[in-house]
Write a structure and sequence with these properties.
The structure holds two protein chains of two kinds. By secondary structure, chain A is α+β, with helices and mostly antiparallel strands. Chain A has helices at residues 5-13, 27-30, 32-43, 172-176, 178-187, 207-213, 217-220, 225-229, 264-269, 342-351, 362-378, 404-417, and strands at 23-25, 49-53, 62-68, 71-77, 83-87, 102-104, 108-109, 116-117, 123-125, 153-157, 160-164, 193-203, 239-243, 250-254, 297-302, 306-311, 314-324, 327-337, 383-385. Helix content of chain A is 25%, strand content 25%. In chain A, the strands form five sheets. Chain A has a seven-stranded antiparallel beta sheet, sandwiched between helices. In chain A, strands 5-4-3-6 form a four-stranded antiparallel beta sheet, with no helix packed on it. Chain A is globular. By secondary structure, chain B is α+β, with helices and mostly antiparallel strands. The radius of gyration of chain B is 16 Å and the shape is globular. Classes of the chains: A alpha+beta, B alpha+beta. Chains A and B meet through strand 12, helix 8, helix 10 and helix 11 of A and strand 1, helix 3, strand 2, helix 4 and strand 7 of B. Strand 12 of chain A pairs parallel with strand 7 of chain B, so a sheet runs across the interface. The complex binds FE2/S2 (inorganic) cluster (FES) and fe (ii) ion. Residues 213, 219-220, 224, 361, 365 of chain A line the site of fe (ii) ion.
């Protein structure tokens, strides 16, 4: 992605306030030049971006439309069984040629002038390449091999497909680091995935706020009355806010507890805490312990565009698709496992009421992120305070009342962004 | 008019009146009254057309039985944080098909407008179709099933009040 000179100079004028990470300036979330640099250096840079689950592409010829950052890509399974990822942009006149969300094809045909691409994204056919009756057509030296859509590197792990613009990316295990990989493999435990469906929504906020929300265990104990009231996440619970060595990835981990065990001190701080709330149908909050993990809930933020949700038994992928500094789209893919009984599938679906854009927790996070962006756009030029837990300057924290994982993320971000 | 035709028109009028009352309860955000629109064993789901047509069961809201619908109302009224808003639910193009077992299948189009406090416009929050099964409890109609199948792929920010 090209950065126009005036944007370059805009970004060059920006300076991080102070010498630590406890203050984050608004321009990190609102500046167009910063956003364009993020696309270039992060989404199109040295990162593994989530693009699909293999369960969405079981057969040769299966494809889905996806994105790497804002950039539309096609994810397809070729005849040899390998998954390919390439830009969804015709090399003739730029048409976004793959329009269906998903399907099965023998080849991709651009609707405009019917250039065709094979399942690996290689240009195959150009109609009237040699003209008609000796007249017209492409120049003699035109070579289709030089006109393939941009191909991305692909890696898959436990049924999850990642793509990268960098041709020499380190293996995924190295990219995630051992601790985040352990949590990833606790959720993707080797059972075959079954797709249960999608949620899609837009959100008028900066894409990083979504990462920060899941690196901010403090909010979970305060914003989410429902969580607190039913003992899913309570200050004082066994919990961990994990960050990898680089600071870019994180996993918020907690263990369900008995709400009657909440200390008087914690109750006093949590306005949300209500004694003796009861559900008319308590099945929704059942936890069936199906994972080899001490945690009943883990939320993994995998840089730069993936959230893995294991909220008790409701499981899902959230893919972040930024559309500018002030908005992003989220595509959720909810799944279960092969071998789930019908009752287990229904349990996952019932528990799904917690999450998504109408979820008891999900709608609150979306609203909160909108409020944050509103605040910055309407009272501009300020900064955020992320100073909780000074004993941990950045990275992994044992307490929920900490913002060290957010600081760790910005330590990494500043390095990559040169800001 | 034949008796059968009069009966069909009366049933249609009943369902239209039911839908108008259902929408009125949601529009004034009287969710406890909204819960009473459902039969005890009701199934209620708000599902994207994408999922519905592919046979994927995931719903934005997924309730098996009136107790879960009641929990939805309770959670939204007592625990959920969201910005203030007004909603208008519009229903039209009703079609009605009585079933041999006495239940009634019905379909209708819906549009939900949403007005936030910080924007001048009413935006379209959802457009879609109700796919319903009605039963009678005494003289009263109740929903045994309501599938709200919405067309717009992207939800704007959040769906806070049911459809
Ligand atoms: S734009 Fe695709 S074939 Fe012309
Ligand atoms: Fe949250």
């Amino acid at each position: 992605m090209d950065i126009s000179p005036e944007h370059l100079s805009d970004v060059a004028r920006l300076a991080w306030p102070g010498d630590d990470l406890t203050r984050i300036p608004d321009w990190v979330y609102t500046d167009q030049g910063v956003y364009e640099r993020e696309v270039e250096r992060i989404f199109h840079g040295r990162t593994w971006n989530y693009v699909a689950l293999e369960a969405e592409l079981p057969n040769a010829g299966d494809f889905i439309r996806s994105n790497v950052g804002p950039t539309p890509v096609v994810v397809s399974r070729a005849k040899d069984g390998a998954v390919h990822v390439f830009e969804n942009r015709c090399t003739h006149r730029a048409a976004e040629f793959c329009r269906e969300l998903t399907g099965n094809v023998k080849e991709f045909v651009c609707p405009y002038h019917q250039w065709t691409y094979d399942l690996k994204g290689k240009l195959q056919g150009v109609p009237f390449r040699r003209g008609v009756a000796g007249a017209g057509g492409m120049p003699k030296e035109f070579s289709p091999a030089n006109h393939n859509p941009r191909q991305l590197a692909v890696t898959t792990h436990r049924g999850v497909v990642f793509a990268s613009y960098a041709e020499d990316m380190e293996p995924l295990a190295e990219y995630l680091g051992p601790e985040v990989m352990r949590e990833f493999e606790a959720t993707f435990d080797g059972r075959k995935l079954v797709i249960l469906g999608h949620y899609r929504h837009s959100l008028p906020g900066n894409w990083k706020l979504y990462h920060e929300n899941l690196k901010d265990p403090y909010h979970a104990t305060l914003l989410h009355t429902f969580l607190v009231a039913f003992g899913l996440l309570v200050a004082g619970n066994k919990s961990l806010m994990l960050a990898d060595a680089s600071g870019r990835h994180g996993v918020m981990c907690s263990a369900k507890s008995d709400p009657s065990k909440v200390t008087a001190e914690a109750k006093g701080e949590m306005r949300a805490f209500r004694e003796g709330m009861r559900l008319a149908d308590p099945r929704m909050m059942d936890f069936i312990d199906e994972f080899d993990s001490p945690w009943s809930v883990t939320m993994a933020t995998i840089w730069p565009n993936l959230i893995v949700q294991r909220e008790m038994n409701t499981l899902g992928i959230r893919q972040l698709v930024p559309t500018g500094p002030n908005e992003f789209i989220m595509k959720w893919t909810m799944f279960g496992f092969e071998g789930d009984s019908e009752e287990m599938t229904r349990h996952r679906l019932r528990q799904g009421n917690l999450m998504g854009p109408a979820g008891f927790l999900g709608l609150e996070d979306n609203e909160a992120i909108k409020f944050v962006q509103d605040g910055m756009l309407r009272v501009p030029g300020g900064e955020h305070v992320v100073a909780l837990d000074p004993a941990t300057p950045f990275g992994t924290s044992q307490t929920l009342i900490s913002e060290s994982a957010i600081r760790g993320m910005y330590r990494h971000w500043r390095e990559v962004m040169g800001l | 008019m034949t008796d059968a035709r009069i009966e069909a028109l009366l049933l249609r009028a009943d369902i239209e009146a039911f839908n108008a009352e259902y929408c009125a309860r949601l529009d004034r955000q009287d969710l406890d009254a909204w819960v009473q629109c459902f039969a005890e064993d009701a199934f209620y789901v708000v599902i994207s057309r994408e999922n519905f047509e592919r046979g994927h069961p995931v719903g934005l809201i997924y309730c098996e039985g009136r107790p879960m619908i009641q929990d939805r109302a309770f959670a939204l009224l007592k625990t959920a944080m969201f910005g203030p808003r007004y909603l208008r639910h519009m229903v039209s193009n009703l079609s009605v098909a009585p079933q041999p077992d006495g239940s009634v299948q019905a379909r209708a189009n819906f549009v939900v407008f949403e007005v936030l406090t910080d924007r001048p416009d009413a935006r379209i929050l959802q457009v879609g179709e109700y796919r319903d099964i009605f039963v009678r409890e005494g003289a009263e109609l109740k929903l045994r099933e309501r599938r709200c199948v919405y067309d717009n792929l992207l939800i704007p920010t959040a769906l806070c009040i049911p459809v």
